Amino acid sequence: MSNILEQYFNLVKRFIPAKTEGSSVGLDIGNADCKFVQIQKKGNAFELLNWGIEPVVQDNVEASLRKVLDRFESPYADVCTAVAGRGTLIRYISMPRMSVDDLRNSFAIEADKYFPFAQEQIYTDCFILDPQGKDKSMSVMAAAVKKELVDQRVQLLTRLGIQTDFIGINPVALANGVHVLGTGVAGPEEPVMALFDMGESVSNLTIMVDKLPRFTRDIFIGGRDYTKMISNVLGVNAQEAEKLKRHPADKSEQIVNACEPAVMNMVQEIKLSFDYFTTERNHEIKRMLLTGGGSMLNGIEAVLAKAFDIKVDRWDPLGFLQLSPALSTDEELRQQSIRLGVAVGLALYRYDRN
Questions:
Q1: How many helices (H) and strands (E) does the chain have?
Q2: pTM for the complete prediction?
Q3: Cis ω before 171 (30° cut-off from 0)
């Protein structure tokens, strides 16, 4: 992996020297559930050894994580996790060209110009996206995470006896998965691509140009909103609404109509981001990749393709991984795999830094 991408995927990190044996674990800790994958490299391929999704009951994340721990298989060399949502920010800025060391020294003083947080309350880092450029200005990606988010995550995992090798940011982890595994789309690669991770409560839009990120934004609409609307409109409980969201059968039109307000709000937010990016960067977005639990909403690909007149595909990490014999007939894995993108990207970080 190039030095540029190595810097990109090293955001907000804590790590020990990589080990040469064992597998790696990606742990995606959310408010609704905790997801994990365990991966090892086999030649030029990656094999999925283990996976799991444990729901968070009564906001007890620690109890969910204890169940996850029971499913880990030794040996594993790395455990990588991430934070997301409110309290995390990624900015793309232009600055006078300088060395990385000078940039970090300068940014340490000027961080409050770019983030709406008090400087003593955040961890920050910044990276040059075009280090070989000849222009007087350079493109810089800067990240900030509230210290309390990272510190709380470390304390939680420490109580559980988990050695935390890496703490990143969800959209960075997902982009890492796409970078390592590929897009999986047919035909020539589009130079400008939108990656849309539809989470349960927060969705994330990352726009990449030539496989490097140039725009990142959280949109606070997700799969939970669709489930609630289906439940309210059709008069069914949350479990039944979740099933109908994915497999509407003869209720397809009712499901689409029930979710329309949330979907249209989401479309409007994406459109604002696309318009801003196109105006600022002079790049037209021609393809979108969907992933995350919210993308399981039946018909969402067609809605977005029509709304933006672009090609829309799903990015399912399972399509790029070999399966261990124990998982080869795991039907639940095939149904849930599109929710594992962040966890997969985190697990693959080990192989980026070796």
A1: 12, 14
A2: 0.86
A3: no
